[in-house]
Amino acid sequence: MLAKLTSKNQLTLPRAAVDAAGNAEYFEIQxxxxxxxxxxxxxxxxxxxxxxxxxxxxxxxxxxxxxxxARKATRGRAMRVAEEPAPYRxxxxxxxxxxxxRANKTK
Length: 107
What we know:
With about 110 residues, this protein is of the alpha+beta class. The protein has a domain at about 45-85. It has helices at about 15-20, 45-55, 60-85, and strands at about 25-30, 35-40. The protein has a two-stranded antiparallel sheet with strand order 1-2. It is flat, with a radius of gyration of 32 Å. The termini are far apart.
């Protein structure tokens, strides 16, 4: 199979190679002895979040407290915005009505 590298460093993979990779959207790329090795990667965002939480040593209680805090802060902000008057005055333009035309009466 042959693939061409464009001037914008884009590489189009042949359909047979894409089908063999299982229609992956992301690939891990390694350069080995002048060769490029593409390995299909399935991105699972939930796994990445769990890994980051484990790295930070955060537990379920910490997450529940953070969610409660965020919801409380959002509710308080929404109530303050609704109660406070606008810091500016809204000016409205008077809409002019078109002048009524008088019919010319000829005698």
